[in-house]
Design a protein that fits this description.
single chain, 295 residues, alpha/beta, Rossmann fold, 12 strands
């Protein structure tokens, strides 16, 4: 690697203190920015920002394909108006010229502005958008009854969940401390969203699953899209809470509308903390073309 991989961490809302603004992903930003190669050079250059005013193209996303960014990590935390059509078109052109995408959302319809982001958007199922009746299991998280499906309950914010690889262990899931095994843990969340492999997409496969602690239903954690031709790699992730400060360290705080009591398991498990850090490091390297594909 001759220069740092240039990453944009971006939310789909304007800066709002009592919401999931980009400042609530500071631990992720700082971790990626801290990573170094064997010769001490920075692996990543990280820019973190919220979107510009809603109702018009975002000044950065709308020109993403003309930028020097190598990856977009898009945290869809809006209620439907987070992306302009011009933004979506530029993101798709960015992906089509080799840019890496990580696109994530949360429960029910939170983040549904991503639905029209090609196959990566189609991988995300929502309550009233991208509905697939064949995979609707009904209510899962029963502790917050006003949040409807999809809402897989993997545990409390601040705790961690066990995840399982599906098929050959994907590069994003390889444990660098024990290459023969997969990473085992990610932060948990009371109501994760739903991701699937879009019909007919030969680039995509589910690479990790979790299990609901409420119903025992197995659900998809991540769908990976392998690069093909000029098209870059991508990952559809079930919830942005796998990356949020509050889930890595609840003492960082959360918006006032979060009602569920947090846990503290992650803070007391060095193994789980290492798994989370390896996961995001692997993801950043894979999206930047620096990890070998599945053999």
């Amino acid at each position: 690697m001759t220069k740092p991989i240039n990453i944009l961490l971006q939310t789909t809302i304007e800066t709002a203190e009592d919401d999931w603004h980009i400042g609530r992903f500071s631990l992720l930003r700082d971790h990626l920015a801290s990573l170094r190669s064997e010769d001490g050079a920075a692996l990543f250059s990280v820019t973190a920002r919220d979107r510009g005013p809603v109702g018009m193209p975002d000044p950065v996303l709308s020109n993403l394909d003309q930028s020097d960014f190598d990856e977009l990590w898009l945290f869809a935390v809006d209620t439907g108006n987070g992306l302009d059509d011009v933004d979506r078109a530029a993101i798709l052109r960015f992906h089509g010229r080799g840019g890496g995408l990580m696109v994530t959302r949360d429960h029910m319809d939170l983040g549904c502005s991503i639905c029209q982001l090609g196959d990566v958007g189609a991988a995300h199922l929502f309550h009233t958008h991208n509905i697939d009746p064949s995979v609707l299991p009904g209510p899962d998280d029963l502790g917050t009854p006003d949040i409807l499906w999809p809402n897989f309950h993997s545990g409390a914010n601040g705790d961690f969940q066990s995840i399982a690889p599906k098929g050959l262990v994907h590069p994003v899931l390889r444990d660098p401390d024990a290459r023969e095994r997969s990473l085992r843990y990610l932060p948990s969340h009371p109501h994760e969203g739903a991701v699937i492999v879009p019909d007919g997409d030969a680039r995509a496969r589910v690479i990790a699953t979790g299990v609901s602690k409420t119903t025992g239903n197995r659900f998809n954690i991540a769908v990976a899209f392998e690069p093909s031709g000029f098209i870059g790699p991508a990952l559809a992730e079930s919830t942005f809470h796998h990356f949020a400060d509050y889930n890595w360290d609840p003492s960082k705080g959360c918006p006032d509308f979060v009602s569920e009591a947090p846990g503290d398991q992650l803070a007391h498990s060095p193994e789980a903390q290492a798994s989370v850090r390896h996961y995001v490091s692997n993801l950043a390297l894979w999206l930047g073309g620096e990890l070998a594909p599945t053999s």
